[in-house]
Amino acid sequence: MDDHILAAQLAAQAGDLLLRIRDQGGKEGDRQSNDLLLRLIAETRPDDAVLSEESVDDPVRLRRDRVWIIDPLDGTREYGEPPRDDWAVHVALTVDGHPVAGAVGLPAAGLVLHTGAPPPLAAPAPGPPRLAVSRTRPPACVDQLVTSLSATLVPMGSAGAKAMAVVRGQVDVYAHSGGQYEWDSCAPVAVAAATGLHVSRLDGTPLRYNQPDPYLPDLLICRPELADAVLDALRKE
């Protein structure tokens, strides 16, 4: 089985588990999904390292070329508020710091988007750019984009849900400046890039993963034809 299909299967199995145990709450969902993913990766790719939000960071990953970066439950708050579907499972494989395969499961929506069969780039929508933002904590960069691009705001939950909304053509831009970690963006970036979207830091520099400090504070995923305008807007004081 190739890495793309494995990532998709891992995200799907974790998603199925999370749906079955949703009534047990987010803390238990985090734990059980993490346990399942760690076990399955160990069984299928025993020589690879793992970086997970829900596990103690093992520095052995820094000596490995192949590292899986996972978020077993992205959007714990949203998961704990049924029937919301804006939460996700992230599974990505990096090689030498670059995402090469990944899957984002949206279990409550019945979807797994992955690099093995990325969806075609959606046709551009008429009107001003649509910007995915947090329902509760919009980052500072949102104001810049609204002012410069007359962007309209589309509130939604987890990072994975917002990123996949760009992939699915439901919004045009997901920009985040409020602080994240590698597991928040690695799988979404892999899928978005495979779809043909622009992915970068907010200053336009490439995203690098499996770094000694997994803190990766900002992220841009957007339609390719909007990338220059978005990056120009973000550079404005």
Q: Which terms would index this structure?
A:
7 helices, about 240 residues, alpha/beta, about 35% helix, five-stranded mixed sheet, D-Maltodextrin-Binding Protein, domain 2, 2 domains, Fructose-1,6-Bisphosphatase, Chain A, domain 1
Would you give an account of this structure?
The structure is a single chain. The chain is of the alpha/beta class and 237 residues long. It has two domains: 3-114, Fructose-1,6-Bisphosphatase, subunit A, domain 1 (Fructose-1,6-Bisphosphatase, Chain A, domain 1); 130-235, 3-Layer(aba) Sandwich (D-Maltodextrin-Binding Protein, domain 2), CATH 3.40.190.80. The chain is 35% helix and 23% strand. It has seven helices and ten strands. The chain has helices spanning 3-20, 26-44, 76-79, 141-149, 159-167, 182-195, 227-235; strands at residues 49-52, 66-74, 88-95, 98-106, 111-114, 130-134, 152-156, 173-176, 198-200, 219-222. The protein has a five-stranded mixed β-sheet with strand order 1-2-3-4-5, sandwiched between helices. A five-stranded mixed β-sheet has the order 7-6-8-10-9, sandwiched between helices. Helix 4 (141-149) links the parallel strand 6 and strand 7. The mean pLDDT is 95. GO terms for molecular function: 3'(2'),5'-bisphosphate nucleotidase activity; metal ion binding. Mg(2+) binds at residues 53, 71, 73-74, 184. Keywords: Magnesium, Metal-binding. Its cofactor is Mg(2+). It holds the Pfam family Inositol_P.
